[in-house]
Amino acid sequence: MIPPRKTRTIRIRDLEVGGAAPIAVQSMAATRTRDLEATARQIRILSAAGADLIRIAVDSKEDVAALAKLRAATDARLSVDLQENYRLAETVAPFVDKVRYNPGHLHHHEKHKSVHDKVAFLVGVAQKNDCALRIGINAGSIAPEYDARFPDDHVSAIVACAIDHCALVDGLGFTNYVVSIKDSDPRLVIDANTKFAAERPDVPIHLGVTEAGMPPEGIIKTRIAFEQLLSRGIGDTLRVSLTLPFDDKGREIEVGRELIHDIENGRFRSVPPNFFDGLNIIACPSCSRVENERFIELAEDVKRMTAYAKEHDLTIAVMGCRVNGPGETDDADLGLWCGPNFVNLKRGEADVGAFSYDDILGKLKAELDALIAARPR
Q: Are residues 30 and 126 in the same domain?
């Protein structure tokens, strides 16, 4: 049930991705990279689960130093997530097989430089170190210029960003790259990737529903997107992003392979027409940007505490870090993004305040009750 894919084949060290190559399944270390023992354990867990590629985030010099030690201790294929500091590519590329940058973050630093020059720097680093590139567009952190060009069409905005960056990289003579277009809503993931694939059928695509949340809902959301896309021949590598305890992260690999196997064998699962009705809780899958492991417990507590509101069409976002948290909670009715000691609470784009992990559930409930009470009966 997965038709032949039309994309070109790229290489991530010895791993072929795209074209006739098997669909690669990957995941991301959930711990802070500078925590060597914990991150090394993540790599072992994901490797044991059969991960084709393991992504690690770097956001500081301490992370870079840790990455060098992790590289020396493992033969696993490693990808690095540059977060908001694209200049780190030069120091981390010697230790990895793939570099991921987010076009939506390039405008934050060195504003006197053009996007073209920043992309040229990244391509040069990838060429020098024989790395693949991932152009990783995240619907929650789109570059402002695309929102301005398409103020009422979010899908067109993120697809245009992807197409423009492909053109930039192509113009620099580099073809060893993949594109990802992700969101927490599987319907947007389907629409955006279908539109992009029609425009650039040659470019390998990394699939994922970011912040899918906790099982089973997170698996269902991911399945919705993967069934619709893989069955159209769209998708060359994928990640299942689930909010799980650190020691259970191998489950992402297992679920990814289960989904591919089911789709290959025509085992599709219908989605109830009302699946997207009622309370929607989105939660990020945890990664090395998370600064307090209590984030995972908090996501579970939010799910339990808000069960009484399940009939209300509201979205609550629980994000684990300061990098994606502020922007990716903007579209939620209520958003929580977690720091080392406090949880920041938002109502839409407005900040409500920062509260301790012990106090946040009560504050969240008060805001939720207020939203429910303000709705027409």
A: yes
